[in-house]
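fwd from M.: "can u put these together and see what the complex looks like"

so here's what she sent:
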Amino acid sequence: MTGQRARFRRRQTILRRVVVTVVLVFFFVPFYGMLDFTTKNLATGGRSLQTWKTLLDFGEIGSTYPDLKSGFIASVLLAILTPAIMLMLLVPTMTWVRLRLPGLSRTLEFICLLPLTVPAIVLVVGLTPIYAWVTYFFGGATVWLCFAYVILVLPYAYRALDTGLRAIDVRTLAEAARSLGAGWGTVMWRIILPNLRTAVLSASFLAVALTLGEFTIANLFSRTNLQVAMFLVGKSDAQISVAVAFLALVFAFVVLFAMSFVGSGKAGTSVFARLRRTKKETA
Amino acid sequence: MSEPTTTTTPAKTGQGVAVRLTDLRRTYSGVNALDGMSLDMAPGEFVALLGPSGCGKTTALRCLAGLEDPDSGTITVGGKDVTAIPTSKRDMGMVFQAYSLFPHMTARENVEFGLQLRRQKSDQRRRRAEEMLELVGLTQHIDKYAHQMSGGQQQRVALARALAIEPQVLLLDEPLSALDAKVRVQLRDEIRRIQLDVGTTTLFVTHDQEEALAIADRVGVMRAGQLQQIAAPEQLYSSPVNDFVADFVGVTNRLAGTASGGSASVLGGSVALLPGSAGPGPVVVLVRPEHVTVAREESGNGSVISASFLGAHGRVIAESDTGEQVTVQVSSAAVGEFAPGARVRLVATGEPALAVAG
Ligand SMILES: Nc1ncnc2c1ncn2[C@@H]1O[C@H](COP(=O)(O)OP(=O)(O)OP(=O)(O)O)[C@@H](O)[C@H]1O
Ligand SMILES: [Mg+2]
């Protein structure tokens, strides 16, 4: 009995290690390839740090590759604006529908999941006339891609927030708060949002990840975000482009990693704490 | 020699206020949840609303809380018309059937929430929260989160939270129905004690008649969106106005009889009839089990079907020779006498009862 269980445990541990190793290899082989390529001296065949020197010379890089600088700034702004707009749009709407218009919840779900079924190219065709207006009102800056990106992240964000809203009794909590004298703003800010923290975090997480990796729409709209900039630079200098891609990956990883700790003021609510807890429970 | 100390709780809100619901109507897609419901509550009174599922109890309470808008009718609290005032301004403490503590706050923070909204200073808030949690007997759990407490404890915190704001009216919608029987009895008695202590006018919704009769000053019985009768528990039990109330509150025998001149002959005895009874002529008389006697007698008028021991008393179910089933309350010591099949004499003792058309 106990021997069998121990054997099962052992086998599970081995399996877990194998999975982790495979995943790590899967992630690190490209990293290794990128590092290898960017440190090659293409002329002599030896090693050279020239590419990295160029790239990390922040004074110079902006003027040598202006696209890269503007693309980077645009992507950072997009990674802030997109989740912000998405949250401002979705959290109150979804809460309100749950509280007051439960009949509309199917419709809302359908609308939010719709972008999933529309290919990017079709989306661009559809968005073109709208972006004529956006350009007219706001100008042609890349950051205004955030509107398109909000649509793009809608399905994922909806799912994440929906899970969060399902986990709490929104109606009763809101009614309890209101009977204690809270207005709707207070209900949202002090009661609903704190209990949705994990959901809000994972929705933002997805939005940031998607924004930082988006190429198709930006390219088709001829706007320069980081991905497009890398593509443009890659045409003239492949090594710089790959080095930037490497940095972008690291950057995205750091941002996402940091995000999972941001806002988790109380212990035990961050994504990682949850992972740890699940692991402990299954172990 | 010291004066006898009267325990004054700082929670005291002084006198409660009068509440009046007048002709409330509320329709949900064709269903009349409230169909001309009127209710008067005296200051400081504890009223329980009782009725079968779906009769509109919750709707009435939610209208009073402002969580639901009546289609027509008015609600006044302390003489002031509050029908159009939103929930957040009505100043009503509510305890819900579902657990409603804010999950991200401790018991103390939950209780302080309403006080914070009323801009009380933080030390004042703290003290008040501690007092309230002491009042409901949770001093040791003051820093716990909802998920660290039992259902009964959570409902106590919810009660403390509702009372902390010194509400004009306390509203309780089946706050005990998710708890097990023992905790339920314990907490309901405690709710009554606290309510008497603070003197807040209270509306308590339940579908458990025992609960309603045990703690309320007056019990209102509802049916299909209307209040059938509202009276003190013993009065409701002894003088129901119709057979719905008689049936719903306590156990009742429906016995055929003949009415004439304010009394009816039932089971070979005579029973005085309550005002509002049907008659004269053939009627059905609603007789309580404790208003029938049963005794072993070979030449009696019925035979025993079963007898059961219920703790404080016993219950004999017999069938009269006219084919009616009669439930009789007996002392628990006597249960053993009534073996199934034994011949007995059943006699109505004559306490006033209601007769309805047969
Ligand atoms: N939001 C709603 N939408 C549609 N119908 C409703 C709604 N709320 C209540 N009703 C209907 O109104 C009637 C009264 O409901 P209410 O909740 O007041 O009953 P209740 O007496 O509290 O019953 P219970 O003891 O089961 O809680 C029911 O027929 C119910 O179906
Ligand atoms: Mg109800």
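replying to her w this: Chain B has eight helices and 20 strands.
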